[in-house]
Amino acid sequence: VQLQASGGGLVQPGGSLRLSCAASGSIFSINDMGWYRQVPGKQRELVARVASNGNTNYADSVKGRFFISRDNAKNTVYLQMNSLKPEDTAVYYCATKEPTAWGSWGQGTQVTVSS
Predict the structure, then answer these.
(1) DSSP code, position 107
(2) Which of 88, 78, 79, 63 is nearest to 13 (CA)?
(3) pLDDT, tens digit (0-9, with 9 covering 90-100), for 71-83
């Protein structure tokens, strides 16, 4: 599976961004789709995931502010990020489970929240 992410950028605190990630290749093997993020010196953390049946899970730090969705017809996963905080600044990676392990990763997109 190949993943192409887009949508990062610079935004002021309280602002919004939407990340997109399109999958191609062996898409029949995809189960969950998700977004991770990483800051220098820290481990990559799971931000949100959406299962093939639509069930979602979120990190506590983003609950109520971030929303993940997927369009199976377009093989695309989205991350709507609202009420952004400086601590949300990170490189965001999309990923897919094929079928039970996070096996494919996008190239990463930088999100910077700063005034």
Answers:
(1) -
(2) 88
(3) 999 999 999 999 9
